[in-house]
Amino acid sequence: MSEQIATVLEAFPVSPMEVMSVSRDLDGSLGTNREWNVPRQIGANTDVAAVLAWLANFTHKQTTFDAYRKEAERLLFWCVLERGKPLSSLAHEDWLAYQTFLGNPIPRDMWVSAQNRRHSRNDPRWRPFAGPLSVSSQRQAGIILASMFSWLVSAGYLAGNPLSLSRQRGRARAPRIERYLDDELWLEVKATIDAMPRETPRERERYLRLRWLLTLFYVCGLRISEIAENNMGNFFCRRDRDGAERWWLEILGKGSKVRLVPATHELMIELGRYRRELNYPALPVSGESTPLLLPIGGKPKAMSRGGIHDIVKSVFAMTSERIKLKGPEFAHVAHRISQASAHWLRHTAGSHMANNSVDLRHVRDNLGHASISTTSGYLHAPDDNRHNDTQDKHRANW
C-alpha cells in the first residue's frame, strides 16, 4: 500500500474529507480528466477543493448538504483507497466498479460501522457506510454524483462526466407505496403509547411528547427533517370565508419549498397538551422559536433527525415486542413493525388520507408532492376493491 493511501487510512476513522491529505498524484492536480483548455470558473486545483466548491451551493439546507457531502466523501475515499487514483482520473469502468461496491462495501471493517450502527463523524467508530446500500439508495447516490460531475465539468474543472456514459434507464415507479402501517398496525402503535407509564413528571412528559410527535407525523405527513428544522412559531391562525378560525402550519420542506399544512383541531389539542406539560401557553405565537419537538426536560433546543429517528424506532421496537407476546402466529406482524422507520409514518399519513377519500389533490398539497402521480401511489383501497371484484366475478369454475 502506498504511503499516500496509508496517510488517508490513518485519518479514516474521523474522516471529514477536508482533512484528506494525499500527494499530488492522488489529490487531483494531475488528474487525467482535468480540463486544461478552457478557463476555470472556480479557483480549486485539487479534487477535495473542487468538491467543497460544489458543496458550498447547498449550505443553506443542512439535510441536502449532509446527503451530498456523504456521497461525495464516499466516492473520494473509494477512488484513493480502492482504485489508487484521484477523483479527477475516474473513468467509466471505475464508475461501474463503484456501483457494485455500493451494494457490498468490502472490506467491511474498513468501510462499514460495527453492527451497522450510525455514529457521529467525530466518533472513532465512524465509517462511511452503515451497511450495503439498497437499490433505491444506490440510484440516489448515482443521481447526486452525476449532478456533481456535471457541475465540475461546467465549472471547467473536469473535461468530461464519466457517469454520463452509463445506460440511462427510466425509473419504473413502484405501483403502490408499501412501506406504511395499515390500520391494524397503526392501532398497535397507538396502543403501545397509551400503555406507557405516566406517574412521574418525566414519564408524563415522555408520554405526551410521543403522542404529540406521532400525531404530528400522522396528521401532517411531515418528513423527519421537517420536524427537526421547523418550529412552533410557524403555526398561525386565520379566518376562512365563513368567519371560522382555522390553524395552519407553514413548513419549509424539501428543496427549500414552503407549503401550508392544515393544523386540524385534533392536532392543536395535542399541541396544547404537550405545551402545557412544558409550562408553555397552550397556543404558540407567531415568530416563536420553540422547536416542534423538544428534548426531555423541555430545553428550547432543536432535536436532530437522528434523535427523532431513535425515538420513533424505540416505539416501533416496543410495539414489535408486545405483538410477539400474542403468539408465534403474529411473528410476521411483529417483524414488519420492527422494520418500520419514521418515514413510514409519512407514507402512513398519505395512505390513510388517500384511502379515506381525502381528495388526492389535497393529499398532494399536504405532503408537498410535485405531481399527483406520486400521490396516487398511496391508493390501496382501489386495489383491494379490484381484487374482491375479480375474485367474486371471475372464476375458472373447475
Automatic annotation (TrEMBL):
It comes from the Bacteria. GO terms for biological process: cell division; chromosome segregation; DNA integration; DNA recombination. The keyword Cytoplasm applies. Residues 45-153 form the Core-binding (CB) domain. InterPro entries: CB, DNA_brk_join_enz, Integrase-like_cat_sf, Integrase_catalytic, Integrase_recombinase_N, Tyrosine_recombinase_XerCD. Residues 176-393 form the Tyr recombinase domain. It holds the Pfam family Phage_integrase. SUPFAM superfamilies: DNA breaking-rejoining enzymes. Gene3D superfamilies: 1.10.150.130, Intergrase catalytic core. Keywords: Cell cycle, Cell division, Chromosome partition, Cytoplasm, DNA integration, DNA recombination, DNA-binding. GO terms for molecular function: DNA binding. Residues 381-398 have a biased composition (Basic and acidic residues). Residues 374-398 are annotated as: Disordered. GO terms for cellular component: cytoplasm. It is found in: Cytoplasm. PANTHER family: PHAGE INTEGRASE-RELATED (PTHR30349), TYROSINE RECOMBINASE XERC (PTHR30349:SF77). This is Tyrosine-type recombinase/integrase.
